[in-house]
Give the backbone structure.
Amino acid sequence: MSNNDVALMAHLMRRAGFGASYEELAQRATKGYEATLEELLHPEDQPELNMDVMQRYMGWRDMGYLAGNQGYWAYRMVNSPRQLEEKICLFWHGIFCVGDSKCMAPHNILVQLDKFRASGLGKFDQLLLDVATNPAMLYYLDNQLSHKDAVNENWGRELLELFTMGVGMDGHPNYTENDVKACAQAFTGWTVANGIPRYPYGRYHNQFLYNHFDHIEEEKTFLGETGNFNGQDIITIIAKQPATARFIARHLYDFFVADEPQVPAWESTPPQDPELIKALEEEYFRSGYEIRAMLRVLFNSDSFKNAQFAKVKSPAEVVCGTLRLVGDFAQPKPRMYDAGLEIRYMGQDLLNPPTVEGWHTGREWIDSGTLVERVNFTAGEMGRVEAPGIQAIINRLGAEGPTVPAERLVEGCLEMLGGYGLMEDTRTLLLSQFQTASALDTGTEEFAHSIGQMLQLIVSTQEYQFT
């Protein structure tokens, strides 16, 4: 097992999950890349996260509020053994956006997230049906206000523009205004049933309701096909479009490989890696629209393996990745909602995106305010030398001998964090912290303090903002 094997495994675990400790990376590297990838791609074979203690800790009252649900999800992202399941949940949440600012019912949005966990790696048409019947989504995009004698086009328009096809491809439009109208008509009658009254045990989940009396029963022409279409027919037609394959492929590339331009630019901006996008499109159709199969192609590609540190971390990746390294959020504890709130302060208000378009990603995650939040949070966590994850780093480096050269301490900390590289100026600056000593005695408290300080400096660098 070489350092390169561990670095590649760290890359996979950052992208297909939220990172891992050096010990876990070494174990997975021994198991092998392909075997680890298959394990990640089949989260159903891994044990579920035991949520009993946390749910008892939180109680049903907290789950009726946004902060409680955000804390619940952050806890899952940090601790779930099904790392790709949580990562794909975050992926779809950034596409099929539903915001609590309008719904004011985060427990209903949580139902959608559970669907992403259950179906997010499966067939895209089934996932789309799950989304189209989710009460939070129907309410968020006003389909409960769409009636046979007064059609609301909001859901139909966003379904095509932001959820499945995009406005255009290769400089050409993917659909027309008439397609939007036909789509909206096909989804009339897809609505939300009234919820059970909230007392005495809090608000219950709303349910999907199909009201056939309020559905437009007539021929519609949609994307070149004509028939008495219902919503499920529309989903079937959308799923087989080349534009849909391209749209999903580019989203997967943008989320898991390297930052792309924002979605509105995709009509006139070609993919930066057309060969991989083409391979993903082909796998989409070959597999019958299966996302798992597309990700297998993506993660095994040279494009992915060579794209280390080519993406700006999202706030969720910054917070959850750091907490997984620190290893001190494995059980419910006071202020457990703080992790979800930290993600919010960095610009990603989970369960509450700014618009139906979602968050602008890549370099747009960072401005002068959010950068301060990132540095303060990560440096504060890494300086806690008593935390289990930091103690493991101290013990591993301390076991290398009675003394550790200053240069090795810097390199060792970079390895322990997952193989980060530094610009030469940054490396020189970090080494300058040890001007008075060329080597550090591993048997002293000063050694532990120096490692904590070095970890704080590393996570404060520009390089740590990339994944």
About this structure: Strands lie at 168-169, 172-173, 190-193, 207-210, 220-222, 225-227, 403-405, 439-441. The chain has three domains: 1-37, 83-305, 388-465. The first helix runs from residue 3 to 16.
